[in-house]
Amino acid sequence: MSAGTVAVIEIGSTGVRAVIAEIDPDGAYRIIDRAEKPVAFGRDVFNSGAVSRETTGQAIAVLRGMRELLRSYGIEPKDARVIATSALREASNRDTFADRVFLRTGFSVDVIEAIEENHLMYLAVRRALGDDYRQIARSNSVILDVGGGSTEIMLLRRGKMAAAHSLRIGTVRIDEQMRAASGVADYLSRYLSDNVRTTCDMLDADLPLSSVRTFIVLGGDARTVARAVGQATEREYAVVTRANFIRFVDALAGLSPEDIVERFRLRYDEAEAFAPGLTVARLFLERTSAEDLVVPLASMRDGLLVDLAGGPDSKFRKTLDAQVLASAVSLGRKYRFDEAHSKHVASLAATIFDRLASEHGLGRRERLLLEAAAILHDVGTFIRSGGHHRHSEYIVLNSELFGLHLDDQVIVANCVRYHRKAGPNSSHPNFMGLSREDRTIVRKLAAILRVADSLDRGHSQSVSITGAELREDRLVLATESRGGDLSLERVSLAEKGDMFEDVFGLKVMLS
After folding, report:
1. Edge-to-edge strand ranges of the sheet holding 463-471
2. Within 10 Å of residue 201's Cβ, how many Cβ atoms?
3. Pairing of strands 81-84, 109-111
């Protein structure tokens, strides 16, 4: 992203929020203006399944006002990054809503998947914590954001992504439950305790919550607590002790929404959600060993700005890519994969990809997808060795991989599917459902993955690639083997090299 003035807009469950920022040539940014208006998307969608005409009209009016704000900074609607989260994601009429918004305002709304919310949160946290993140990464961590429609949670094992989940627990949903149970004493406490306990039991399979020492909470509610009882740091985050946080949440039990509005200077709709959101955070906190809460002074919109400001070689992008692969490894461990083999195949595949750059014409994104597919290509053996490529495809399609869009995850699943046996054909719905461009990417990446997998046929990690040379219709790989004998790899390559030859017009040879 080139330097200049940019704008990001988030359409959430409770309102529309805009941020305008100046991006410096070095990728740093500073916020120069903000705007926020409440719009009750969540109440519509979580009750009726769709955004009402009235709410759509209100949203268009709000976005028209924001359009004029952006234009005062020289930003046209087509140049703004506009995302919508859980409420619009679940709305049956989301496409109609997005079309009406575009026609009336010029804003193009991108309804993002939950996993993208997680990666934007992660970017916001990394920027806010700065170099202090390294110290925090020495222990197991949780990153939590309780929104109106969902709770986003990431589990990190010593700084590396263990799992990322989007939970159907949100302050607007909770409020609707409370309205339905009007008059029932202690309903909120029992409802949340039951839901969070079940969720925590599920999360323990990814990372024992009792081992978590660092608890990071995003969101306006947490920032309000930090201002009231927290301690500021030299970075863009505050720290709240566990005891102070619990006392603060306990004290809310005796306050009405009107009291909260007056005491904390919140809007009434924010005050209604204040106690439920913090109660959710408290219930998760109590399952951990964390003595403090780390509260970044940032939001998902900061994650969007980091994403806009950083090019493919930025430190944040490289860190994010590393977390995608860490998430893939964590998923592999869940299914007891051969970790040494899978990581070695990923390394071989990346090497071939780099040496073949002039032939495949692909970039950083595709290299990352190839590495993820290589890590996960054998996870299906957990179900059954026979036909494990199809089982691997199923596992990848039905798992949450941090940092990957849904389309990217489908590409990875297809690459896994075609790492052995028959190649793509028109009878495979998961392949044919891709765009023509993505089907081409799958063919190229799967062909490279087959070659890389054949070079570790014995799962011994004994073969490495030291060079590559294109000779007319051949790709000659210079290799070294600890055992000195490449006969098994040559046989395997003869069996699995056909797709590579079909896709690239090159026969792979070993020297």
Report:
1. 463-471, 474-481, 507-510
2. 11
3. parallel
State the DSSP string of 267-316.
Answer: -HHHHHHHHHHHHHHHHHHTTS--SEEEEES--HHHHHHHHHH--TTSHH
Question: Could you tell me the residue ranges of all domains in the chain?
Answer: 4-112, 115-307, 315-460
Tell which residue, 217, 192, 252, 271, has the closest CA to residue 14. 271
CB 36 within 8 A of CB 17: yes
Please give the model's pTM, rounded to 2 decimal places: 0.85
Reading the chain (511 residues) residue by residue, the pLDDT tens digits are 446 899 999 999 999 999 999 998 877 899 999 999 999 999 999 999 999 999 999 999 999 999 999 999 999 999 999 999 999 999 999 999 999 999 999 999 999 988 888 989 999 999 999 999 988 889 999 999 999 989 999 999 999 999 999 888 888 888 777 766 665 556 677 888 888 999 999 999 999 999 999 999 999 999 999 999 999 998 899 999 999 999 999 999 889 999 999 999 999 988 988 999 999 999 999 999 999 999 999 999 999 999 888 755 567 777 889 999 999 999 999 999 999 999 999 999 999 999 999 999 999 999 999 999 999 999 999 999 999 999 999 999 999 889 888 899 999 999 999 999 889 988 999 999 999 999 999 999 999 999 999 999 889 999 999 999 998 899 999 999 887 788 888 998 988 889 999 999 999 999 8
> Dihedral through CA 316, CA 321, CA 327, CA 332, nearest 10?
-160
CATH number of 315-460: 1.10.3210.10
Which contiguous run of DSSP H or E holds residue 467?
strand 463-471
CATH assignment of 115-307, given 3.40.50.2020, 3.30.420.150, 3.10.129.10, 3.50.50.60? 3.30.420.150
Fold of domain 4-112 = Nucleotidyltransferase; domain 5 (3.30.420)
Residue with token string 């590409």: 411
Q: E strands of 77-211, at which residues? A: 81-84, 109-111, 140-146, 151-157, 160-167
Q: 182: helix, coil or strand?
A: coil
Residue 480 contacts residue 466 (beta carbons within 8 Å): yes
The amino acid occupying position 267 is R
Same CATH fold, 115-307 and 4-112? yes
- The answer to whether residues 239 and 294 touch, using CB atoms and an 8 Å cutoff, is yes
The alpha carbons of the chain give a radius of gyration, in whole angstroms, of 25
Assess contact for 161 and 154: CB atoms under 8 A: yes
